[in-house]
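Ticket #4471: complex job returned nothing on first submit. Input attached below:
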Amino acid sequence: MFSWSRFAAILVKEFVQVRRDRLTFAMMIGVPVMQLVLFGYAINMDPKGLPMAVVSADASPFTRSLVRGLEASGYFRVVAQPATQAEAEALVAEGDVQFVLHLPADFSRRLARGERPVALLEADATDPAATGNAIAAVQAVNQSGLDRDLSGPLASLRQGPPAFELRVHRRYNPEGITAYNIVPGLMGVVLTMTMVMMTSIAMTRERERGTMENLLATPVRPFEVMAGKIVPYILIGYVQVVVILVAAKLLFRVPMVGSLALLSAILVLFIAANLAVGFTFSTLARNQMQAMQMTFFFFLPSMLLSGFMFPFRGMPGWAQAVGEVLPLTHFLRIVRGILLKGNSWDAVALEVGALAAFLVAAGTVALARYRETLD
Amino acid sequence: MAEPDYAIEVEGLTKRFDDKVVVDHFGLRVRRGQIYGFLGPNGSGKTTTIRMLCGLLTPDEGRGTCLGFDIRRESARIKREVGYMTQRFSLYEDLSIAENLEFVARIYGIARRRERVDAALERLGLARRRRQLAGTLSGGWKQRLALAACLLHEPRLLLLDEPTAGVDPGARREFWAHLHELAHEGMTVLVSTHYMDEAERCHALAYIAYGKLLASGSAEEVVAGAHLATWAIEGEVAALATAAAALKGAPGADMVVPFGSRLHVSGTDAGALAASVTRVAAAAGLRAAPIEPGLEDVFIHLMRRTPEPVTVAHQAGG
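Support reply: We reran it on our side without changes. The output follows.
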């Protein structure tokens, strides 16, 4: 028989418990708000104003007009005019620009002669989603870009085939295979989730089970506890990395151009950064449930704002600023750079520096939060 | 360095949690080699005091030393020399007995680890169970393991927080025999308990209520110091109940406590108490005789005499 009073007893108890657990309650309100903001405002599948470098050996009205035409499409924004190919190469490698427009020295001359010169637009196609629409827009520029400049004797060039050819070269991922971008990124995502989660419950478990008091009564130092708890997970993290790399190679045929040794070295830093975050959560959370919730609260923006799921450059400034703080953002640039672009240390040094800064900050907070007493 | 006479010497210890004064200007001196009993009702501040002694909590006021080390500044040294057994089992339930002991041995950097762990297992009769997970042990065995763990680094002072709570009488008796051996070898032991028989086995006692020290000394000194007169009334059970009701509020009868088929009636005004008891006993046809008050009578009396401070309403732990 269903008893209303027994049902009510459970019901009332649940409400009392939910109300008492403030953090869970805040999460239930906070998570939807966060998701609304992130999905609603931060995510943009059609990124515009992508940074472009122009390597021009020919400064003429035609070339200026061509660049203006590209910019007018809304997808391109000239941020650099490197003098040499090498400089342009470095800009692409470090991810400072998404496109490089190469204008040969005889572009105007050949255009005037009606020889249909070729301008080369190199695209960093590691993330096909970020460049797809921009490349599509190039075709329109191809058609109409120079019409206004083709006047007088050149007016005849307006008819017929376009006066020049804008050739697009998708670098690093010419076929635009999404898996090439996603699978290396997934390494970072998996590490972020498991590493933060595992350590976040590490200290709370000690507290919940009452073993913390015993631990604190011994001469063990905070750094010893932290290091001792973190190192096993670094090893677990490496196992995950190997699994993903093997799958990337065998199942998805992801190109691995760069140095795996360099990647492995940087991985320590990235894993440790995430573990420090988890350790901090673990000093804040009162129970394992709260620790899991905090992990989720960290994981959600990491997924959405790091450039893993959605193009980083499509996001508004504030979202990019948040993304820059997250270790995953920097790791994605590093891992994609090394595997797909074959980046060397020089090209990733800045991102590695960002990771190191994050590690130091998170580690300091974690150690400062660790209490040697029960006060 | 010269060994101080007192293993524990603290004065004016005060601890507040938020606005609640949990320990209020508490002072204590424990001679080396003594087993010192620490008694008081739940929530009286025993655990908090013990935690301040071993550096787990920082006192808000007061000063003192543990084994000659300052409890404020030298808690790292104290932690190395003190064995602390928590009220709740605080070793790892998902580690085996041997693994737990090895963990502790490593934390304290004990030399000849394996040997010492084996010896500890042997001494406590845990050798055959070394591979058993700590979580699957019964209360009594958990307590043995916990004691073995806090003895492993050969501390000079043991702080035991209700070590025998929930342990059967046989295991308790063994446990106390072991404590006396340790004390004989020179170990100082501060042990909190709720059991009167255990209190009587201590060399000295301290009674704390609402964070204040109410009495201290040997069991005899504590009893004598209370200046309490106690009468026992015996006879038919129904008549005892009537007598108990009649004695409530009678002049001199501060405390009426049933002990099975007896009533213990105590009070500080011996003359008034004698008059009341003999009157009521005679009326109900019961036998009454003066007896030596027991520790329990004294403790209940001490606690009742001390009004509960309003600020210390509901503090947990104790």
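Chain B is about 35% helix and 25% strand. Closing as resolved unless it happens again.
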